[in-house]
Amino acid sequence: MMNPTVEALLILQERDVRVSALTAELENLPIQIEAVEDDLAVRTAKFDETKVKTRQIEADRKKLDLDVQSKQAAIARYRTQQQTTRKNEEFSALNHEIEHAEKEISALEDQELELMEAYDKGLAVVAQAQKDLAVFQEKAKQKKTDLEKRTAAVTAELTGAKEKQAAAEKTVDEEVLSRYRRILKSKKDVALVPIHGGSCGGCHMKLTSQTVLSAKGGENLASCENCGRLVYWLE
């Protein structure tokens, strides 16, 4: 027959494990929510960057267009000056300026065409990116909602688990409870483990015959000589 103290400790340990698991999950949930928000912020920033790049292409095209208009206006002035001059040298110089400006206009218009194509492609990329972002925003919103619901559920469950934990503590002698708590704090996982094939169920090291007999007798609490955990005989 199992020692009643061991039975009480096993119940307490089961509840401790549950409280520990729920506490860990509750601590991790805000991190998960923050990760969702961070991911959404990164994707939104990337989308905004795509829009800015596309707008810049159009701004650059408009600047080229203004340059073209400026050079066209200069050509018009040169032609007007040609009509009023009577000097062949001045007429030739103006003609040279006109030819130079026309070549520059041609080069600028080629650049404009390239930018117009790039802008059209950019608009298509922005449109698709906007759709993708909208889908991701919806998924992120749903995931965040699910995590917030889980937070509320775990909080409630943890409250109940702690109540059961407190009730289980009352069934254990204070001195034994203090010893159990010290071991649990040290080992981080469990303080009470079964004996398997003469070995400790915690560190898996071989136990002395005296420890095994003591645990099997069930009269006193036995502990592992290696790791210090409490051990019990598993019938």
Give the name of the CATH architecture of the largest domain.
Orthogonal Bundle
Oligomer: single chain
Query: What's the average pLDDT?
Result: 95
Distance between the termini: 8 Å
Percent of residues in beta strands: 5-15%
Tell me the overall shape: rod-shaped
Q: For the largest sheet, list the strands in their spatial order.
A: 2-1-4-3
The total of helices stands at 4
Give the biggest sheet: 4 strands, mixed
* Poorly predicted runs: none
- CATH fold group of the largest domain: Helix Hairpins
Structural class, please? Answer: mainly alpha
Query: What's the Cα radius of gyration?
Result: 40 Å
Give the helix proportion (percent range).
Answer: over 70%
Number of domains in the coordinates? 2
What features would you highlight for this structure?
4-stranded mixed β-sheet, mainly alpha, 5% strand, 4 helices, Helix Hairpins, 235 residues, 4 strands, 2 domains
SSE layout and pairings?
Blueprint: H1 4-84, H2 88-169, H3 174-187, E1 192-196, E2 199-200, H4 209-217, E3 222-223, E4 230-232
Parallel strand pairs: 1-4
Antiparallel strand pairs: 1-2, 3-4
Helix pairs in contact: 1-2
